[in-house]
Predict the structure of inositol-polyphosphate 5-phosphatase.
Amino acid sequence: EFLPCPSQTLCTKATMQTVRAADTNEVVKLIFRESDNDRKVTLQLEKKLFDYVNQEVFRDNNGTALLEFDKELSVFKDRLCELDISFPPSYPYSEDSSQGKQYMNTRCPAWCDRVLMSPSAKELILRSESEEKVVTYDHIGPSVCMGDHKPVFLAFRIAPGAGKPHARVHKCCVVQ
């Protein structure tokens, strides 16, 4: 579908103009204009263009308002999962080294970089065995240019033998 679901959320108070190719009548551009404010253009969509006037919406509260449109894992339901995302969309960032926080206007920002695991691995990671246990799922270099993606990481501590119910724990290793 040409119109991505997030555009409906991003442009709730806007009117949409459709531009079609003269020869094929195919939709080639969508222009969203504010209903008031001199009909200012808030979003333009084309084949390789996603030009939204306020990129802060993708960083405010880490873009969580748009997570409802993230359907990447739906095809892996019950087989693969991930921890809750609490970082802004990881793609597409500007590759200009002076604009580490700026998104490119080529696509709607999205969480394209992920750490996926089986449900049993997730349960093992989240199992609280001590108060010191810290799990971090985040992106790297929020203000630094690293190409068009911001890498993501998952950091956690796990006790020796965790997940192996009959393992005997020794000072240096796990023995089955």
